[in-house]
Amino acid sequence: METAKSAILSALLVSSFAVGDSLAEQTVGAAGLKVPRQVTRAIGEIRIDGKLDEAAWSSALALDLPYDTRPGDNTPAPVDTTCYLTYDDKHVYLGCRALDPNPEKIRARLSDRDRAFNDDFIGMIIDTFNDERQAYEFFVNPLGVQMDLTQDDVNGNEDESWDAIWDSAGQITEEGYETEMAIPFSSLRFQSGGEEQTWGIDVARFWPRDHRYRIALNRLDREVSCYLCQSSKVKGFVGAKPGKNLEI
After folding, report:
1. Nearest-angstrom CA–CA distance, 248 and 246
2. Phi, psi dihedrals of residue 56, rounded to the nearest 5°
3. Counting Cβ atoms within 10 Å, is residue 126 exposed (0-12), middle (13-18) or buried (19+)?
4. Does the bond joining 184 to the residue before it have cis omega, within 30 degrees of 0?
5. Which of 51, 60, 100, 121 has the highest Cβ tally under 10 A?
């Protein structure tokens, strides 16, 4: 009897640890809970020149993009991509290293703002209120051409008429391309108070080759009608202050 009880207790303990490990990767959200990843303050200055050579990137939150969400159905990404997220008193920064087995096939043109969607491009979608309803989108092509939009996940609309003031740069390398962006907190809206923030985030790379691949940080369940509810969560941004800009 004691042996049987011990076996049952051991099984329960193993089960509880397994659940704990699972919950360590998840937290509340309509499509499953994800524990926020911690983004830390930059340890030094970042110069936006399209080169990820500053020391600040070495301590930034690394975000790999493992999923092909279109045309694949959360299958392994065909190319490797890692982005890095950090912040300081005035900006949130995203730097990306997008590897490519054939850099000569990278599509990149100098063009007007919001007109590089046929190129290779990469960027992030941030839900700054963490309400899984609205978000900002910031993308750049390999030459740093900017594309910014707002997303209303309630009705599924994206609006490219919204333009923020931010910095970006990019360069094509022998291994693919690198990009950097610095988005002023003054260009965003989020909870005020200077306390730690939790934001929803997705990072996506578009790779137009034989198909227009969408490679992303998060899995995308096609049976779930909402997009932002499937985003990862990041927490940090202590001391950040939202803008009070008025557009006339």
Report:
1. 6
2. -60, -30
3. buried
4. no
5. 121
| Radius of gyration in angstroms for the set of CA atoms belonging to the chain, rounded to a whole number | 20
The token pair that represents 205 in the structure block:
């790379």
Question: Residue 134, by phi and psi: left (phi above 0), alpha (psi -120 to 50) or beta?
Answer: beta
Q: CA-to-CA distance for 19 and 87, rounded, in angstroms?
A: 33
Taking alpha carbons only, the member of 96, 158, 155 closest to residue 124 is: 96
What percentage of the chain carries pLDDT values higher than 90? 82
pLDDT band at 193 (very low <50, low <70, confident <90, very high): confident
- Cα 116 to Cα 83, 98, 152, 238: the distances in Å are 20, 17, 21, 33
Amino acid at 200: G
How far, rounded to the nearest angstrom, does the alpha carbon of residue 159 sit from its chain's CA centroid?
Answer: 19
- The sign one gets for the Cα dihedral 160, 163, 196, 98 is positive
Cβ-based neighbour number of residue 64 at 10 Å: 12
- What are the backbone angles phi and psi of residue 20, rounded to the nearest 5°? -60, -45
